[in-house]
Amino acid sequence: MAVLRWLPRVANGGVELNVITAHGCSGDELRRPTHCPTLGAPFLRHRLVLARDAVRTNGSVPRTITGDVEECQRPDNFDPAKVLGSIVICTFSEGFFNQISTIRAITQTATTLDFMGFILMANPNFGDYVAEPTIFSSPGILIPKVLDSQLIMRYYEEKTYRDRGGVVTQFGARARINEGRNSVFAGEAPVVSRFSSRGPAFIDANQNPLDVLKPDILAPGHQIWGAWSLTSAFDPNFTGRRFAILSGTSMAAPHIAGISALIKQLNPSWTPAMIASAISTTATGYDSSGEVMSAESYGIGELFPSNHFDHGAGHVNPARALDPGLVLPTGFEDYISFLCSLPNINPDAVRSATGAWCTTKLSHPANLNHPSVTISALKGPLVVRRSFQNVSNKTERYLGSVVPPNGTIVRLSPSWFTIRAQRIQDVDIEFNVTEVLNQFTFGEIVLTGSLNHIVSLDDFTANLLIKLVSSSKVSVTLEREVVQCLQIHRFVIITFTPQAVEHYKLISKVNNKLESTPPGSLPPTPPIFHPLAPTPDIISFCVKEELCPSSLPSFKGQQARVEVRLREGIAVNIKR
């Protein structure tokens, strides 16, 4: 069943690691994926031959140039004397476009005819193509961009001499393929991969949305270099090899499995649901530069800002998952109750899939105690509950704040609480519709702890649909609404978004200052207030010298200034 919630669904992400190589061409270097260099690299260069210029002749008449010639798919298409010891330029054509031609066929041709190496270039008639690093049995390089291919062809034609009939009389171009098993760290990361499964989840073939999040988490699954079985028949290129580089869910899922094993080793008594919660509630939706994580579209080279249907709770953070502060415990019976509460569910199907009968139901499917809350059709006021267990060994105070999805008002009850070690705290989440949007929208709930645990619950809505995940995001950005400064009794919490960990020390600085302040000098706690609507007294008290421009750490070298505003529930804005 697609709705079995004890099975986490893992999305695929690219990391800040790329396998590169260099192809020397008249002094210019083009970096692209490959496996091994040509003989004598990086010093020796070899003759460069375009595949169509090396076609075997039929007597004095050259063979007709076909797609499999340009794509170097068959050895019998070529004149052995012209390609021997040469780097042959093959061209992405109709065969690759229709997924008939293969890199393996090129390498077999290269091996049979003793190519020094090969290049598979993009074709202007078909546009850029997607190049994934792989293991070649002979030196080779992939040039997936048309602009790069045109540079190579311009150099090739300048150095190649032809007779009046267009037949090559002298191959003057020279090239080499450099080492390609090196790595560089560059570009946006992480990025949701093009092939990663996206949400929303559906309950049936009619695509009725399901009240669960899809995917649950994002993990590295693109261009992963790892151990490989010598006898594997998955890909002939990898047969007999101890390592392989692959992409897909089969690469992302082992990351989550390994992280789960580490958490279980540290916390042997934790259930699978607690481990899954810890992983989800400590994930991040931001990339290494502090910006919202991007996702690849189906257009080559195109990126767009991702949402929770792309990255789930966010990119996994193993170190933080070991100390989540709070987890959401869930048992087998809870999952059965969830399944039995789904609309139009067949109890026999639940029995067949799980071996359990439908004896109880949840009041609403979104009441499954899961680190996400999805409401697929929010038509009026709705209250759902989440139960949090303190898995640390100390008592901690948590303050809740809400950034509601568009078209909703979201309230927490209680909005703050103190929870002792290993105890459980219930939090009711009340949703009210303010505008029917008939589309997916997203928000966030943040529980900030006095011991630096921060649990953020991301909301999303479709027809108003809401998702809740928890994660520790403590950071600052400029030019956005940034800081909330809230006071409960004698404890002040400052929450920053999105991620910039260097500003985390600001929280400790303010807290230490307040702890040393005599109790009588603190302003009185208002009897009732909403976390996102602090009173002016609290604002003026929180925004003290600690937040003045002279003491505020700069972000990316940019000087910040502080404004005190009471706008849309944001207490303090930091801007350039």
From TrEMBL:
<keyword id="KW-0378">Hydrolase</keyword>
<keyword id="KW-0732">Signal</keyword>
<keyword id="KW-0645">Protease</keyword>
<dbReference type="InterPro" id="IPR000209">
    <property type="entry name" value="Peptidase_S8/S53_dom"/>
</dbReference>
<feature type="domain" description="Subtilisin-like protease fibronectin type-III">
    <location>
        <begin position="367"/>
        <end position="456"/>
    </location>
</feature>
<feature type="domain" description="Peptidase S8/S53">
    <location>
        <begin position="189"/>
        <end position="301"/>
    </location>
</feature>
<protein>
    <recommendedName>
        <fullName>Peptidase S8/S53 domain-containing protein</fullName>
    </recommendedName>
</protein>
<dbReference type="InterPro" id="IPR023828">
    <property type="entry name" value="Peptidase_S8_Ser-AS"/>
</dbReference>
<dbReference type="Pfam" id="PF00082">
    <property type="entry name" value="Peptidase_S8"/>
</dbReference>
<dbReference type="InterPro" id="IPR045051">
    <property type="entry name" value="SBT"/>
</dbReference>
<dbReference type="InterPro" id="IPR036852">
    <property type="entry name" value="Peptidase_S8/S53_dom_sf"/>
</dbReference>
<keyword id="KW-0720">Serine protease</keyword>
<dbReference type="GO" id="GO:0006508">
    <property type="term" value="P:proteolysis"/>
</dbReference>
<dbReference type="InterPro" id="IPR041469">
    <property type="entry name" value="Subtilisin-like_FN3"/>
</dbReference>
<dbReference type="GO" id="GO:0004252">
    <property type="term" value="F:serine-type endopeptidase activity"/>
</dbReference>
<comment type="similarity">
    <text>Belongs to the peptidase S8 family.</text>
</comment>
<dbReference type="Pfam" id="PF17766">
    <property type="entry name" value="fn3_6"/>
</dbReference>
